[in-house]
Amino acid sequence: MPNQAAYFSLQASYVGPDGDNVVMPAKLVTVNYAAQNHGTIDIPDATASATTYNVPFGLVNVDATGGMVFNNSGQPLEVKINGAAAASQTIPNGGMFCWANPVSAGSTPILSISLRTTALQVGAGTVTYHIFGDPV
Question: How confident is the model over 55-80, as a mean pLDDT?
Fold first, then answer.
């Protein structure tokens, strides 16, 4: 498949350092992709702490140039990229991990993401993901 384009837009609104003016920076990044995968990971009630879930990349297997992972689990989730031994960050409940690269990363592509629960799951939760990559 020829390259397609996904558009990642970030807009923020906050009171600036002067305390008077509202600042509204925005950025649009075009992410090229030939493969994509979207879905939801269910985290069942009573899932044990330290349970790992792999975000399915589907046909994206060379470089994930862009993606969004939304945490609606009810608890913080640790993020490990490319099978790292330690978590690089934690996504709080209601939070999002997002990246957008206009070209392939080169020597350090994102090839996998795993999420690990940090507590006993209370009630059912979900993680929603959108992955784009493998531009040609």
Answer: 97
Query: Between the CA of residue 14 and those of 9, 10, 19, 24, 96, what are the distances in Å?
Result: 17, 13, 10, 7, 19
* Whether 93 contacts 71, CB under 8 Å: yes
Asked whether residue 118 carries a pLDDT value surpassing 90, the answer given is: yes
Q: What's the helix, strand, coil split of the chain in %, to 5?
A: 0, 50, 50
- What percent of the chain has pLDDT above 70? 99
Locus of tokens 């070209």: 103
Residue 2, pLDDT > 80, answer: no
Task: Tell me the residue ranges of DSSP E strands in 1-136.
Answer: 4-11, 14-15, 22-23, 26-33, 35-43, 52-54, 66-72, 77-81, 89-91, 96-100, 113-117, 125-133
What is the rounded CA–CA span in Å between residue 76 and residue 43?
A: 12
- State the amino acid at position 91 in one-letter form: I
With a CB cutoff of 8 Å and minimum separation 6, the contacts of 25 are 11, 12
Residue with structure tokens 């992410």?
A: 31
CA 97 to the chain's CA centroid: 4
